[in-house]
Every structure is written in structure tokens, then in C-alpha cells.
Amino acid sequence: MRYALMIYAEPGYLEALPEAEREATYAEYFALTDEGSYVGATQLQSAETATCVRVSGGRTLMTDGPFADTKEVLGGFCLVEADNLDEAIELAARIPAARHGGTVEVRPVMRF
Amino acid sequence: MFRDEWGRVLASLVGFLGDFDRAEEAAQEAFAIAARSWPAAGVPDTPVAWLVTTARNRAIDRLRRERTLADKLHLLPAPEAIVDEFDDTPIKDERLELIFTCCHPALPLEGQVALTLRTLGGLDTGEIARAFLVPEETMKRRLTRAKAKIKATGIPFAVPEARLLPERVDAVLAVLYLIYNEGYRGRVDLEAEAIRLGWLLAALMPQEAEVHGVLALMLFHHARRRARFSGEDLVLLDDQDRSLWDTGQIAAGRAVLDRAMALGGRGAYVVQAAIASLQSRERIDWPQIAELYGRLAALTGSPVVELNRAVAIAQAGDPGAALRAVDRLGLDDYLYFHSTRGELLRRLGRGAEAGTAYRRALDLATSTPERRFLTHRLEQL
Hints:
The complex is a heterodimer. Chain A has helices at residues 19-33, 85-93, 96-99; strands at 2-9, 38-43, 51-56, 59-64, 73-81, 103-108. Chain A is an alpha+beta fold. Chain A is globular and about 45 Å long. By secondary structure, chain B is mostly helical. Chain B has 18 helices and 2 strands. Chain B has helices spanning 3-17, 20-41, 47-73, 95-102, 109-119, 125-131, 136-153, 165-182, 190-204, 209-223, 247-262, 268-279, 286-300, 303-315, 319-327, 335-347, 351-364, 368-380, and strands spanning 229-230, 233-234. A two-stranded antiparallel ribbon of chain B has the order 1-2. In chain B, strand 1 and strand 2 form a beta hairpin. In chain B, helix 5 packs across helix 7 (136-153) and helix 16 runs antiparallel to helix 17. The longest helix of chain B has 27 residues, at 47-73. Chain B is elongated. Chain A binds chain B through residues 1, 82-86, 88-89, 106-108, and chain B through 104, 106, 152-156, 158, 160, 164.
């Protein structure tokens, strides 16, 4: 099955780490995404760069920033192949943000 | 009528069909056929194999009909090819796989509980709803959501690997103990149901000390259930009529606890069972109980456990030390914190302070037996 792993974390948590640990964490991310189970992965630019778009009455409406006023924001996501939810959970648990106070949301991807 | 077979048959069908709804439907059909034909034809030599084979045949028929329909309509995806013939190998017991699927931590806890009672316990939706005092529609939705999540998210039908096992066994035991504790309130006898499931788990996982621990704990508590109330009134351990205790069940609890200890069990359930065992002795060894509560507090970090430890210290003859221990706990919103303080102050001859503590407890009491008990204590001061 294919799963999306969506990474929610406090902005700037990586930058706040001591340099050595930060470098190690980056290396960990790169190593993870090189694994066979990863279909794709991407990191998003900061939440300040977000624009929300709605269409109402034929007009395109834009607002600045992400919706919710929460501390954690979507910082990136991965697509992985796993045999079952337990495997997907293990992959999610290895994402560094998960142990740095962030949350990884695991969702199966719709297949058509 | 066939409650004991239900779980095994259903487990086998979920394993075969990979789908809870189809499995349940097929099992229900097979049990209905058995109810019609067994009284006249006699119970087959291997009822589980008979039921599983019958249910599988029904499920396959149904899949075939759906496939034919799908071919005609060119709309629905055709179900994958299925095996038509069965060999004679004995039906594998897949109840353990079923338990771990139903108690998967990705499911909401209330869904885990409902699904466990439905699939392994063989209770129907109405019975589970009555046990938890919710409308049947609510319970139906809860079960449907849990089954849908298992299917959509790919929760495996498998016993977890060794490195995941301890955490997942904990999750199963939490569900079991929750079912047991609901039994105090509901109308269906969930205590008996939890104990039945406990025996099943102990048979399926004979090497897991905590499984035996939780079973022993439930047996000790259950053995005292008839002595726990006098009419509507709560009866404390000290004042219980021991002739109402179920001695057979206490003996069974001891045997199960021995097994847990022999396996090297030192977990929270084993320690609690050891405490319950000591409490059901003729002469209660309170210093030993206080020591065990100390161990339990170290395992759980729970102030409520510390409160119980203080009670044991008082019972061992030192209410002064007990009060000092209680006063260190920040449990101001907890009824038993105040009722325990009241009791300790009463024993120390500080009646006025005891009255204040009992009144504070009474403010927090929600159930009638609790209120009556505390009112009675206040009157006795």
C-alpha cells in the first residue's frame, strides 16, 4: 500500500539545534529518502510563504499564510510504499521531526 | 449457544477473506445453518472445522455471485480469484492475530473495546451497546468506523514482530482491563466477559507474564464482588463478609499469579495481582502490601498508587506516617484523597479536621453509594 507521511513541526526547530546535531539530522533525512520504500519526499518552504486560494462566485480569492493558528505547521511530506500500517508507522517513527516534538500524520493514499 | 466457537470461526474467516464485514456475514450464516441442522443431525465431530468450511463456502458463493453481476454490469471491479477447494488440515487458530488487529493502537480505544467484544467475545451489537449504556446506533457506527479504518489503512491481521510485541501486548491488556472495569456499572456482565477473554489470552500467550498478571488480578477482584456491596452500601475490604468471597476463584487467581511469578513477571499487573492476593489472605500482611505499592508507584509514577501505599502504611499500624505521606500528594480534586485524609485524621483523634476532610470528599462524590458511605462516616465522628 502507498502512504503519505505528513510532517508537522514547529517552524525553526531544525535551525535551533546545535550545528553538529543539525547536520546529523539532515543526513538522516537524506538517508531515509534514499531508501527503497520512499516513492518521493519534499520539504516545504516556511509557512510565511503560504498563500491560500479559494474560488467563490468565479473569483479567485487569496489569503496570506496557512489556515490554522497552531504552533505546528506542515513542513514537508513523503510518499512511501509499505506492506501494511505497522510498516508505515515504523517509517514515520524514524522521521527525525517525530522525536523533536513534531507529529507525523500517516494516511493511506487513495488508489484509482 | 456457540459463543466459544464464534471467535475461532470468525478469526479463521478474517484470515481467509481479509475482510471483517464479509467474515462476519459468512460466520453468521454458518451459525444460523448450524442452529437449524445440528439439533436433528447432531453436532459434527469437529464443530469449528464444520462452521469454518460452511462459512467459507457461503462467502465464496457470494463472491461468485458478485463477480458474475460485476461481469454483466462491467462496473464493479472483479474480486480476485479465490481457491475453491479445501484440504483436510486442521483449522489454524488465528484468534491471536484477531486480538492484535482489534486492539491496534491506531484505532480509537472505544472502537478497540467494541470490536474485541464483538469479534472475540461474540457479543452482538445490542449487548455491547447496553453494556456501555449507549444507543445501539452509536455502537453500530463505532464498530463500522473501526472496521472501515482497519481496511482502509491496512492494519495487518498478524501477531506483531518480537520487537513490537511488548508495547502491543500492553495495548491488548489495557483493552481487557478496561472491559473488566466497565463491568461495575453496565447491565451486561462485562467482568465475566473480561475474565473469559483473559483465560483465552493466557492460553494463547502462555509465556507472557503480564497476561497472567491481569487475569489473576481480575480473578481476585471478581472473587470479592458479592461482598463489595451490602444492599446499596459500599463495604470496605476490612468490613467485608468473607463468607461471601468465592474461594474457588481466589484459588484460581493464586495459581495464575504463581505462573506469572514463575515467568519472572514484575510488571504493573503482576504487582497489583500480588497485592490483591495478599489482601485476600486470612491475616493481611500490610507491611508487605505497602512495600508492593512502593514498587507499583515506581513503575507507574501514579500519585493514586502513592495514596494506596499510605493506606497500607496506616493499616500496618502507623497512621501518622501515612498522613505525612498523603499530605505530600497533590490530589486536591480527588475524592479518595480527602476520604483517606478523613479516615487517617479520625484514627489520630483529630475529629474536627477529619470532619472537614470528609465534607470535602462529600462535595466531590458523584454516586449514591459513595455519598451514603461518607455521610455515615461523618455521623460517626
